Amino acid sequence: MTQRVANRHAFSVNGGAVRWLTPRRAMTLGLIALTLVLGKYGGDLAKALDMRWLVKFPSAWTVPFKSQITVAMKWLVEDAHVGPLAFTDLTRAIAWLIEQPYQFMVSFLAKGFWAGQGAAATEILPAASWIAVIVAVIALGHYCRDWGLATLAGGCFLYLAAFGQWDSAMVTLASVAIAVPIGAGGGLLVGIWAYRHPVGERILSPMLDLMQTVPVFAYLVPILFMFGFGPVSALIATIIYATPPMIRVTTLALKGVDPEIVDFGRMAGTTPRQLIWRVLVPSAAKSIMIGVNQVIMLTLNMVIIASMIGAGGLGFDVLAALRRLDIGAGFEAGLAIVVLAIAVDRISQAFAQQAGQAPTVPAGQGWIRRHRRMVLVLVVLVVAWLLGRLVPALKDYPEAQTLTTGAFWSEVVRYLNINYFDSFEAIKVAFLTWFMLPVKQMALGIPWPWAIAMLVLLGWRAGGARLAVLCGTLSGLILLAGLWPKAMITVYLCGASVILATVIGVPLGVVAALSRRGGQVIGVVIDTLQTLPSFVYLIPVVMLFRVGDFTAMVAIVLYALAPAVRYAAHGVRNVSQDLIEAGTVSGCSKWQLLRLIRLPMALPEILLGINQTIMLALSMLVITALVGTRDLGQEVYIALTKADTGRGLVAGLAIAFIAIIADRLVSAAARGARIRFGLESPS
Amino acid sequence: MTRPIKLSCRNVWKLYGANADQLLHKSPSPTDAEIRAAGVIGAVRDASIDIADGEIFVIMGLSGSGKSTLVRCLARLIESSRGQVLFEGSDLLQASDREMIEIRRHKMGMVFQHFALLPHLTVLQNIIFPLTVQGVGAQETNTRGREVLELVGLTGREDYYPRELSGGQQQRVGIARSLVTEPDLWFLDEPFSALDPLIRREMQDEFLRLQARLHKTIVFITHDFDEAVRLADRIAVMKDGEIIQVATPQELLLRPATDYVAEFTRHIPRDKVLTVGALVDANLTGSGAAIMADARVADVAERIIAADTAVPVADVDGRIVGAVDRVAVARVLFGTGSAT
Ligand SMILES: Nc1ncnc2c1ncn2[C@@H]1O[C@H](COP(=O)(O)OP(=O)(O)O)[C@@H](O)[C@H]1O
Ligand SMILES: [Mg+2]
Asked: What residue stretches are annotated with the ABC transporter domain (chain B) (predicted)?
């Protein structure tokens, strides 16, 4: 009993009785308060002092990065050459290399093989029958896991046929089928290279950082400029977007191979090449396959964005519907992407899990028996081709049998809008007036010298001189580019979304960690949220709230919520059991355990989750540009429609800089917390 | 005991840390204080050993004492910061990459603490892996693979995957795989440390049985002094990267170089290590049949105690060198002080 009281006492000493208002904290609070005040009254102050340049960076001081880049790009495309080889020859060669397999895939899956041009063209061979494709998918599902997966995958594809999305879906599938092998294979090779040459990794790492933080829109513009409008440009953009994680995952997976295995490989007398391909890559196959899965998901994520520079398929359908505000059609095509994504995701995950284990085919049986699934698919394919001439239904899904739900969704939206318009409007207005507008005014009101000074100070406190310099330089560049106000709107939109996502996500994560039942439910919801391509969130939100910042925020929150939940749950779950027991023995109540032990110890993880949330939020900006935001994402979008390279790149880089600043600050804070808790040693 | 030296190292150093090279450049054999001041880790410090052909040489030390680093310097998996490694008389550190690959393919084998089996290959495929990377034909690899498989008692498990085997069985695969190329030099880095005590014991017996047949030159790493004493011809005791004593188990028990070594020997059942030769009293004459000087005390203790007089002791040539009485044996069995 005395023991318990003594321990309680110890806790209260740690928890509250210590003087919490240290001079350092007092200064922090003071600075925050000052920043808030400046945010609110900065504009008036500047006016009163007659120093408008404090809030509005004079345009005479900006540096014309945009036009310089545009000129440079123009030179690159029109004049640059090495000897007789012009830069355009290079781009044409790349385009040709990608075009050939893509055309074959599209012909095979969607359009059929044709000879001749235009009206004189004759079909040599029709596209693969929908039945053959569905049988192939079922066989693949069965091969990768079991009949359950086979049914799911088959069902998804049947859905595509029955709801009249087949042709578009096959075009999309064709680009996935081209982008994924190139992205995954290329990523694997580059990842191996970086693993073998530490210098390579040191060069690559910041490049990958940048590629993953620069929003895709930013490089859509130069790609459009170099390769022209069309599916090849779209494929190149998709590959650039989807490859970096594969490189990262490969290098990490190879590094993660047990050092004993590496030693074994060398002791067995392998050559460097044998060591890579016969020891390391197979040992790391499981982790590497996670990278492949990521490539697939990112590729699917890109389909709608890629359609802005010429990819057809489902992405184009969604984009066209969104532009017409045809909610029903957009929803159906969007749903078709989701269905396709689910099928491809589940199959590739099952394939990844199975990859570590060699197939258990009993040896010594005939080729046909060992490949009976493949034989079946080939037979169905050929038979459908042969009979397709007689029975059209074998070739194409009969049009009369297609279902559509487009009208239904439009009806639902009309119903909701008629009956609940006021409620939706009230929610929207409340959020706008009480939360978003104040944040926005604050962000725009803070004088830029003060904001930059605060960033430098934060960087210095969190990560020393280097981080301080980084924060100062990057924010300074944004300012010089004349993008300060747009950057602040970006910060406001993302900031508001991240705050909301954190407020919702972290408690959900805690619940998921502490209650088994809750954990399961939340897990399923979060998994689903993460599998969906990002723009899908936009469609229902636009239906209910129409265009504007609020819609953008809701879509961003939905998209970026997952990591906040995941990391919080992981952090809370992984608090050392010893600490929990020590707390319990000391007489902590459940609530005290949470407040005094679990949450503080989980803080580093929670911070990392928020970091991920910020990154996702920033990458979503380009999509929310579709609903008429006024931030950097919109700037890139406009540049894209005008094919203005300089404008697009500069705005894209500005978003990347914001992402880098946020990432470095939060990571440094998380590291600081880990060091304070003794989970990591300072070095 | 004048077998040729198979492997030796001279003044081998391995320092980790940013300033390691700089430090060694400044002072070729830095002191404790210098190492600490430079902020580097002295994983192996000034190690010199000679390992004779056919010997079981055990490197013993607590975890972190530098055993793995030393053995990897010997196998040149790690480049030593300084020093020489001589394998069959030639400098291993001068060998080119190509030569190193050849040496490892034909002359060295290694067993790992956590088995290091390739998860995507079956037992048989794992075992013949060193042969397949050499490009040996399928027929030959298969026969050789099955031979070593039988040697370690895993016949019938060819087509299992590593994850389907127990720890002991997995290490048998690791052992078979390291023997399939018929190496002369066999490195074992804590091969039994990850196994349960009972299995460990069984594997040690099997290891001795294998060595009795194969006569490899063995470098065996362990942190378990019992194991070292049980298996070793000679033991090198390591502490903080330094070798503090190299001796036979019996010498370690009788004449520990430092208190640190003595501390290890304290809980070892001495009768299982000491031989009668260590107890023999040249001035005593015994009666009855002589016992051999190299017999372990534990094996003959009962006879000596049961005898009424001292028992005569003979050396390898059959000459009587003295006798042992029950007092000397009792002191080994029950005493804690010195044996003589
Ligand atoms: N790659 C490395 N980098 C830095 N320090 C290392 C490295 N490898 C080993 N060490 C250090 O060297 C010392 C000896 O390690 P090791 O040889 O693995 O010990 P043992 O095998 O005896 O347990 C330890 O202090 C370890 O932390
Ligand atoms: Mg070790």
From this structure: 7-265
Judge: A274–B112 Cβ closer than 8 Å, yes or no: no
- Interface residue ranges in chain A relative to chain B, Cβ cutoff 8 Å: 258, 260-261, 263-264, 266-271, 274, 278-279, 282-283, 285, 356-358
Which residue's alpha carbon is nearest to atom 25 within ligand 1? Answer: B64
A445 neighbors A39 (Cβ within 8 angstroms): yes
Q: Which two tokens stand for residue A320?
A: 């066209």
What is the interface pTM, i.e. ipTM, of the complex?
Answer: 0.91
- Across the range B230-242, mean pLDDT stands at 94
Share of chain B above pLDDT 70, in %: 98
Alpha helices in B135-267 (DSSP H): 138-151, 167-179, 197-214, 225-231, 249-254, 259-265
Q: Which domain holds residue A433?
A: 2-14+22-56+420-676
CB A168 within 8 A of CB A317: yes
Minimal Cβ distance to A264: which of B105, B110, B181:
B110
Query: In this complex, which of A269, A282, A285 lies closest to B130 when CB atoms are compared?
Result: A269
* Element at A207 (helix H, strand E): helix A198-213
The per-residue pLDDT for range A162-213, each reduced to its tens digit, is: 888 888 999 999 999 999 999 999 999 999 999 999 888 888 888 887 777 6
Using CA atoms, how far residue A464 sits from A261, A665, A666, in Å, is 38, 11, 14
Residue written as token pair 């509005």: A56
Query: Which pLDDT does position A8 carry in this prediction?
Result: 42
> Ligand 2: distance of its center to the CA of A256 in Å?
18
Identify all chain B residues contacting A356, using CB atoms and an 8 Å cutoff.
Answer: 119-120
Domain presence at residue A95: yes
Ligand 1 touching residue B79 (CB < 6 A): no
Residue A44 neighbours by CB under 8 Å, 6+ apart = none
Q: Is B63 in the pocket of ligand 1 (CB under 6 A)?
A: yes
Statement to judge: residues A7 and A91 lie in one domain: no
Residue B315 in 3-state DSSP? coil
Question: What is the band of A314 on the pLDDT scale with cuts at 50, 70, 90?
Answer: confident
CATH homologous superfamily of B5-107+183-268 equals: P-loop containing nucleotide triphosphate hydrolases (3.40.50.300)
Report domain extents, chain B. Answer: 5-107+183-268, 271-334
Verify whether the Cβ–Cβ distance A358 to B122 is below 8 Å.
yes
| Of residues B230, B264, B257, the one with CA closest to residue B61 | B264
Question: What residue in A sits closest to B135 (Cα-Cα)?
Answer: A270
Beta bridge partners of A606: none
